[in-house]
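Exercise 4. Each item below gives a protein and its sequence. For each, produce the structure-token representation.

Item: YifB family Mg chelatase-like AAA ATPase (Clostridium boliviensis).
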Amino acid sequence: MYSKVHSIGIIGIEGVPILVEADVSDGLPGFSMVGYLSSQVKEAQDRVRTALKNSGFRIPAKKITINLSPADIRKEGTAFDLPIAIAILSASGLITSSGLSDCVFSGELGLDGTVKPVRGALSIAIAAKKDGKTTCYLPRENRGEGSVTDGIQIVGLNTLKELTDYLNGGKKLPEFLADHKVAGSAGKNYDVDFSDIGGQPFLRRATEVAVAGMHNIMYIGPAGTGKTMFASRIPTIMPSLSWEEIMEISKIYSVCGLLSGENPVMDIRPFRSPHHTITSQALAGGGRIPKPGEITLASGGVLFLDEFSEFQKPTIEILRQPLEEGEITISRTHGSYLFPAKFLLAAAMNPCPCGFYPDRTRCRCSESQVNKYLGRISKPILDRIDICAESSPVSYEELRQGKKGESSASIRNRIEQARSMQLERFRGTGIRFNSFMKKPDLERFCILNKKETSFLKQIYESMGLSVRGYEKILKLARTIADLESSEKITKVHLAEAAGLRSREGRFWGGIYG
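Answer:
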């Protein structure tokens, strides 16, 4: 007999419908599987056969053929164990249910017939809904992830026997309905706040502008001047996540196995801070079966690279495409995988090996040492960083005063107002933030009067900007105007935008100028 069961495979972070076909016929007894399978999927025949036996099923000694379709998509992982078992039981006449065509099955089988958790349950549930299915059967541990998807019934399983009894009209399985209406929680669940930091007004303003328009920022200055403190507090002033953003980020973490039953979704902005010894593959993602790296895990949040100049140069250069396009493509023999990478880059570094350059009263580094140290950051990477914020040592008087700064909640209110202007401005364009504007968008949304045009020309020529640098100035000025609720970009906005980039020339002008 022939039967078919629906399942979902994971390609990158997206679910792809997979049809599991089973044919149980007369002939020399055997168990064969086809359909462009990885070794993990091929091993399913031993797991499934033993799980069926230990669940009390006697499979006739016949020829069993399993096909996973479409054959041009490589099947990875252990999540096909459950649908293969159901397809065999259906083809053997041991499951009498006629409603299998409206269901999706996914789960790994233990040898005793238990259904074990899999990665990517949220992507599986979303893909099942898009494919028009009404019910998705998942391992009990994954039911929380799957249930955040509207419009599809999620059923959690403990054992294979439990499922087959239900499909044959036995005891009803408990449906798990999660309270998935998660409110955005910006500023919550953090044990840090901007009010903890006193002084450093320039760094405060630079950070606020960076978050308001999702502009990449570099903090540069001596050790102990607050660079890491500012970066670690960026998520506390980022706006609440929309439900679409929550789902997008949660899919990434689901595929990586970083969600749990207690936390089935990511409802706060990610903050990733990899050590400078990280490999290129761990940062970008990849492997024989490509998985998301740190830049994808930071999507929708912050990627903080402390000691930026200590990262291996090839690792830093990997950031070029993601910073420009908001996504990264990993190509392997089996195909290309596209991962999102829309994050805010916050980098921190010292200006020289000792950390005190350009203060020559304290810095003892030679010019060649300084140039070599700063030269670890290439010009193309610098061009992709919108803001260069120099931190200065805190005076003894400021330290002793202990005066608290403005709170994260207060700063976030201004940023949310600026973001609302951007959402209205870019409605229907697919753009979310000012930093994502391309040249045609700049011509449309950053219109300057004659006086401002002349002033921008002076900035362009005096700073020796590249075309990308010129566009960065315009984007920053647009964000600064949004923070002041101004539709018009003025000379004041352009001047501040230029000031937020001028520190770059102060340190790297002698190298790349």
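Check: The chain has three domains: 2-167, 200-411, 437-513.
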